[in-house]
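Appendix C. Worked example: Histidinol-phosphatase
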Amino acid sequence: MSSRWEDDLQLALIMADQVDALTTKRFLAPDLKVSDKPDLTPVTDADQAAEKLIRKHLSHSRSRDAVVGEEEGSTGLASRKWVIDPIDGTSNFLRGVPVWATLIGLMEDGKMVMGVVSAPALGFRWWAAAGSGAWTGRSRTSARQLRVSRISNLNQASFSYSLIGEWAEAHRLRGFMNLSQQVWRTRAYGDFWSYMLLAEGAVDVAAEPDLNLWDMGALYPIVTEAGGKFTSLTGEDGVNGPGAVVTNGRLHSQVLQYIGSETD
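Step 2, the predicted output written as C-alpha cells:
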C-alpha cells in the first residue's frame, strides 16, 4: 500500500544506500578519527560525513524542507522537517560492535510520518510511511511486513533497554528495577535495535529515559505502523520526550505504572 509520502520514502531509501556505503567503509577503519562533542559524547569522521551527505541530497531534492541532525543542528523553519541521526550507536561503531544504524525520518506538522533505519553491519533495514505499514528486508521487492507481538502479560514479556545509569539519573531506577523483575526476561539490545525488534514482534517492551528527537524520529513510524505504541515516559504520544516508552500496545499501561513517574 502506498502513501502520500511514497516519494519521500524512496528518497530516504536512496540516501540510506549511499550512506551505508560510506559508513561501512569507515567501520573498523584503522584511521577512523574520533573526537568529543561539547556534551562529551563521541563523534567520528563517519558521523560527520554521513550527515553532510544526507544534507547535500536534501538541499537538491527537498530544498524547501527544514532539517535537524545530531551533528549539525537545525536549519530551516518549514513545517516539513527531516530528522537525521547519521550513526545511531556511535560508541558501538567506534568500538567495532556492529549494532549501529543510520536513521532518516520525516516530520510534518509536528508528527513523524516516515522513517528509515538502516543497519548495514547487521545486514538489516526497516522502513515505514504513515498509512502504508512497516517493512523490513534488504530491498523493497523482498520485504516482509512487520507486526508487533500479541503478548498481554508482563510475565511473558521481553524488555529491552539501554544504559541502567540513565534510569538513576532520571529518578526512575526503582521503577525500572521493579519492572525488570516482573517481565519474563530483560535484554540490553540498546539504541535503535530495541525498537526494531519490538516492531518485528521479538521484543515486547523497549524504553529509554534520555533521548533526543533524532534518536526517536525515524523509529516512531516504524513502531506505530507495525501496531505498537510509542509515548514519552509520562505517556504522551509522539517523540517529544522525556524519553520513550514503546510497547506492543497491550502492555503499555502496565509498563507506565512502573516507569511513568519518578520513584526515587
